[in-house]
Amino acid sequence: MPKAISMPRETGTMAKSHRTRLGIIFGGKSGEHEISLKSAVSVIRALDPNKYEITAIGITKEGRLAGNSEIKEMLRDALSPGLRAGAAIETKTSKMRITSDFPKERAIPRNAPEILFPLLHGPFGEDGTVQGLLEIVGAPYVGCGVLASAVGMDKDIMKRLLLQAGLPIVPFRTILSRDLKENMQALKKSISQELGYPMFSKPANLGSSVGVRKIHSHKEFEGALEYSAQFDRKIVVEKAIDGREMECAILGNDEALASVVGEVIPAHEFYDYDAKYLSPDSRLEIPARINDGKREEIRDLALKSFHAIDASGLARVDFFLERGSGRVWLNEINTMPGFTPISMYAKLWAASGVSFEELVRRLIGLGEERYRERNKRRISIE
To answer: Is residue 87 exposed (0-12), middle (13-18) or buried (19+ Cβ within 10 Å)?
Structure first.
């Protein structure tokens, strides 16, 4: 059963009294660029400038490090005199720095961040690519490592791994985009027989419901898959569960904690991009109105999925509580959930007694803890 929600021990930066130098990486090449900006603005505005010295490190839609003026435009809603624009990906412990221009001075500056928070959503940020870059640079960072980030982004691999761990995954099929043109009719027949209608088609490697379509009948099948195929080479087709959408937040490393369980009540037929970020009619009910048994079952499954992909730091795990049967289905795990004002992750922890600023503080400590652990490991027999 899940551990009771309680205060974890303080580690690393968490016990420090001076201002923490935090580097926030935001933006990125993915279709969730704008969501990343919202997350970065939310974190910057929420943190006490007397406790945090923030360096903003922007990545443009083209995938290059943003300049000063670009960062100001990207973060125009969070500008403050204390906000420092970063021209490189670096920390005070980095072995090297990543910069868009060849630096005249190779030394890492004294006011470089102590730890980085990659608030990047989607491909080229949440999928292990940036985490791998930070590992090469030798920088401490918040959140999941390379493997968990990559697995968490690829819904196909994620679901296979969670299924192997014995977790109740929503029935699905994965197909390659290249197979649509020649095999569409055969795919339509076999998948409709296996999963039945309604169902969902979605890109394997995107989040925030980008590229997702609900398929109600044969007539919508081809158009939905062709739409999802625009975003990825792999398409995941899932059975649509008639259920309530439940979410649980995880915080920790090897000894992780599960939050209270919340329910998403979407404004639309399902929790699509507009319902998540644009519609004022979508709402969250925290804690969810479910019995103790279902609540503990969801928390237990959330922790098991977190450890199954070797996650660290944070994650949000999404479920369906099927109407009628009361069965709990695990939908997916998100290794870098949004930090917008309406984001479920922060609200779940607020309802569990952890404020937004305290949440960031704990995540920094967990990132430093994992960094120290990695540095103790031998990588050579010499």
So the answer is: buried
The CATH fold of domain 243-373: D-amino Acid Aminotransferase; Chain A, domain 1 (3.30.470)
Q: Which CATH number fits domain 171-239: 3.30.1490.20, 3.90.470.10, 1.10.530.10, 2.170.150.70?
A: 3.30.1490.20
Q: What is the per-residue pLDDT across 203-262, written as a single tens digit (0 to 9) for each?
A: 998 765 778 999 999 999 999 999 999 999 999 999 999 999 999 999 999 999 999 999
pLDDT at 341: 58
Largest CA-CA distance found in the chain, in angstroms, rounded: 66
Contacts of 100 (CB under 8 A, 6+ apart): 64, 65, 67, 87, 88
Compute how many other C-beta atoms are within 10 angstroms of the C-beta atom of residue 280.
7
Q: Kindly indicate the confidence band of residue 81, based on its pLDDT and cuts at 50, 70 and 90.
A: confident
Distances (CA, A) of 192 to 102, 171, 216, 221, 354: 55, 12, 11, 9, 44
The Cβ-side half-sphere exposure at 124, using a 13 Å CA radius, reads 16
pLDDT digits (tens, 9 = 90+) for 277-311: 454 566 889 999 999 999 999 999 999 999 999 99
DSSP code per residue over 146-167: HHHHHHHH-HHHHHHHHHHTT-
Distance CA 40, CA 262 (A): 23
DSSP 21: E
